[in-house]
Amino acid sequence: MKILHVIPTLSSGGAERFVTDLTNTLAGYDDCEITLLILKSDKDSENIFYKKELSKKVTFKSLGIQKVQFYDLWKIYQAIKSEKPDIVHYHLAGTLNLMLLTILLYRKPTYIETIHSDIRAIIGINKRDRWIKSFAYKRGLVKVCTITPSNGKAFKEYYHCDSVATIVNGRNVAPPSPLFDTRKKEVESYKHSPYTMVFTHIGRFTKAKNQKLLIIAFNNFVHRGNDAILLIIGNGFDSPQAEEYKDHACDSIYFLGEQHDVQDYLLNSDGFCLTSIFEGMPITLIEAFACGCIPISTPVCGSIDFIQDGKNGFLARDYKKESYIDALERFAAHHQDIDKSQLKDLYDTHFSMKNCASQYHQLYTNFIN
Fold this sequence. Notes:
It is a single chain. By secondary structure, the protein is of the alpha/beta class. It has helices at 14-26, 70-83, 95-105, 119-122, 127-138, 149-159, 180-190, 211-223, 240-247, 263-267, 283-290, 303-306, 321-334, 340-351, 353-368; strands at residues 2-7, 33-40, 59-65, 87-91, 110-114, 143-146, 165-166, 197-202, 228-233, 253-257, 271-274, 294-297, 314-315. Strands 3-2-1-4-5-6-7 form a seven-stranded parallel beta sheet, sandwiched between helices. Strands 10-9-8-11-12-13 form a six-stranded parallel beta sheet, sandwiched between helices. Helix 1 (14-26) crosses helix 15, helix 2 (70-83) packs across helix 3 and helix 11 crosses helix 14 (340-351). The longest helix is centred in the last third of the chain and has 16 residues, at 353-368. It is globular.
């Protein structure tokens, strides 16, 4: 069967990381012919952050769109029709707007959308986009796949229709990279003492990731006498607003920029900090579980599904500064009571890409049959 995955870019985001892993794994199936189409230009290095990780069995294509114009919708239609796929599986909320013309005119494939975001974030977009989504979902033009139980429940409550499946995101977590020892020494060089707690945050600088809360809360946590450092990994921290936050960060916070092989840092960390306002099923949370790195999270979708407070991580009560500081304090007091092997077992049970890809393969097969 011919499967076409469509996503705007392969930049360093969670959905892009997921699509890279999923297409690589599906390409290993004997009955799958996998093509990955990015809509934007592959001449921009930011758009192809994960391209070099793609399997040689995955056919990669780029439409080269710069700023979307109306004729680009026709370009997308022609590109997809020329592929003659059995399944078109697209990703990220804004992609449906670009795909709608194709979905209406070319009805031969089955169209599947994975909802990677919290439904609260999706319904916050403008009225036109909300109408397009309701139109496509309720009329069955698109088959929707949700990614956690809470994600699926919220989808049904808002759109008054069911998703065709709930398939929890997976991740192919790599072993330590060849640079592991170098990065271990790097992390050790930041520590104040052998007992310094190491926290890592992974995410591009955006309002949704809420790094403002992270920096303010961690500043307070350190000022209360806790021996700790925070490593922040991600791009976008050179914007004027990010620079303002960085200026207020204490000297125990280190901004490391965009990095490949983030598992090296997680394996050298005690805790993983997630302060998002909206999430679907955070890929970074999956990576933390796989590395045995204890999460401290706001109560976002995905975290509330799989973090048991005090048993395999720590959940803030809400999105306020005091709540997240309290979660950090509880981590400091009780993290040694948590058996990290439980986190790795949770990954093996729920989040391996092998399991995830197997469920998508079965879903594709059911639709084709």
